[in-house]
């Protein structure tokens, strides 16, 4: 297939719609019905497209058709192209309604608790007319949304293993995941409660599947321990906080959650194998808007403040942990 033939007017948008529909329906007859055209028209259009690309796209089966390896390649790219066009139409509608393009930010718990809210406040102070849309989700969900151009950037725990080459990661600071409990929790009376001892309490764990959930399960496995029996799966901070404050539950959460909340505290039990890099994830294959760049600058400013607080708290907690007093202890974490 010559590139000039693709961009020279021979390849039509309706042909992309057609092959995707055939793949979804599994037959020319089903595609004809779905698109309200005749089966001969479908056959003719497929033949024309095969002439353009120079290969067979479908093979006939006893019941319908299936794509060839060439067909699979073209269908995958057709889906992506049609998806991009649909998202472009949605974004055009958003701009028409809002008067300007909204800044779409994805975040997970590590970013949503303090880093992103403070940065948005700073951005809106200088650019009050910029509409900002925040979407929460797991790192996996948000990475996929970023690759699909459904969000402009992502704030929170970094996961360089996801979509290698398609995403660019900007590390802002390190924040350990610690076990958070209510003030006055019985476990705070122990100098350093073990993970085995903490299994006796109710646990609040991230939903499956998520990166943090997998990492926590690996922590238990490395110590030869089964997962806690009494478990609530939750990723909503308001729900988790209410349960923590009102019960003896324990929850692995970013250090800053226990540091900034007057009703919560941190246990000195380490989860050293859980990664802790916090930052911004950007698309590697396209530029971001000027408003997105302003938000990144604001995030960097806020991150410096948070990083300083975390360093000071960890020094203080390490000092407490060297004695026998109760309370919380920060992780001996590396800092950027």
From TrEMBL:
The protein's matches in InterPro entries, at most eight in alphabetical order, are given as: HTH-type_LysR_regulators, LysR_HTH_N, LysR_subst-bd, WH-like_DNA-bd_sf, WH_DNA-bd_sf
Task: Give the residue ranges for region: Disordered.
Answer: 313-336
Example of a GO cellular component annotation carried by this entry: cytosol
Q: Which UniProt keywords apply?
A: DNA-binding, Transcription, Transcription regulation
Q: Which SUPFAM superfamilies match?
A: Periplasmic binding protein-like II (SSF53850), Winged helix' DNA-binding domain (SSF46785)
The protein's GO terms of the molecular function aspect are: DNA binding; DNA-binding transcription factor activity
Task: Enumerate the spans annotated as HTH lysR-type domain.
Answer: 11-68
What the record says about family reads: Belongs to the LysR transcriptional regulatory family.
List the PANTHER family hit by this protein, alphabetically: HTH-TYPE TRANSCRIPTIONAL REGULATOR YBHD (PTHR30419), NITROGEN ASSIMILATION TRANSCRIPTIONAL ACTIVATOR-RELATED (PTHR30419:SF8)
Protein name, per record: LysR family transcriptional regulator
Q: Which organism is it from?
A: Nocardioides zeae
């Amino acid at each position: 297939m010559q590139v000039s033939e693709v961009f020279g007017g021979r390849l039509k948008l309706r042909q992309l719609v057609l092959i995707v529909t055939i793949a979804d329906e599994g037959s020319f007859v089903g595609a004809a019905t779905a698109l309200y055209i005749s089966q001969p028209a479908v056959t003719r259009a497929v033949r024309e497209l095969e002439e353009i690309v120079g290969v067979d796209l479908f093979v006939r089966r006893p019941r319908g058709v299936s794509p060839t390896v060439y067909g699979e390649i073209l269908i995958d790219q057709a889906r992506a192209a049609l998806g991009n066009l649909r998202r472009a139409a949605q974004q055009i509608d958003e701009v028409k309604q809002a008067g300007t393009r909204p800044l779409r930010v994805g975040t997970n718990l590590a970013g949503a608790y303090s880093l992103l809210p403070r940065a948005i406040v700073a951005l809106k102070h200088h650019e009050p007319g910029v509409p900002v849309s925040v979407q929460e989700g797991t790192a996996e969900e948000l990475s996929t949304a970023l690759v699909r151009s459904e969000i402009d950037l992502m704030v929170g725990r970094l996961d360089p293993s996801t979509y290698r080459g398609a995403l660019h990661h900007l590390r802002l600071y390190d924040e350990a995941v610690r076990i958070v409990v209510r003030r006055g929790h019985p476990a705070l009376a122990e100098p350093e409660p073990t993970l085995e001892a903490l299994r006796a309490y109710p646990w609040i764990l991230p939903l499956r599947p998520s990166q943090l959930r997998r990492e926590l399960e690996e922590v238990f496995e490395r110590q030869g321990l089964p997962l806690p029996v009494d478990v609530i799966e939750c990723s909503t901070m308001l729900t988790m906080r209410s349960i923590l404050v009102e019960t003896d539950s324990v929850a692995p959460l970013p250090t800053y959650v226990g540091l900034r909340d007057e009703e919560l505290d941190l246990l000195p039990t380490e989860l050293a194998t859980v990664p802790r890099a916090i930052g911004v994830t950007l698309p590697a294959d396209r530029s971001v808007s000027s408003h997105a760049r302003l938000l990144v600058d604001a995030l960097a400013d806020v991150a410096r403040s948070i990083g300083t607080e975390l360093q000071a708290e960890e020094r203080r907690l390490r000092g407490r942990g060297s004695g026998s007093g109760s309370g919380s202890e920060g992780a001996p974490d590396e800092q950027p």
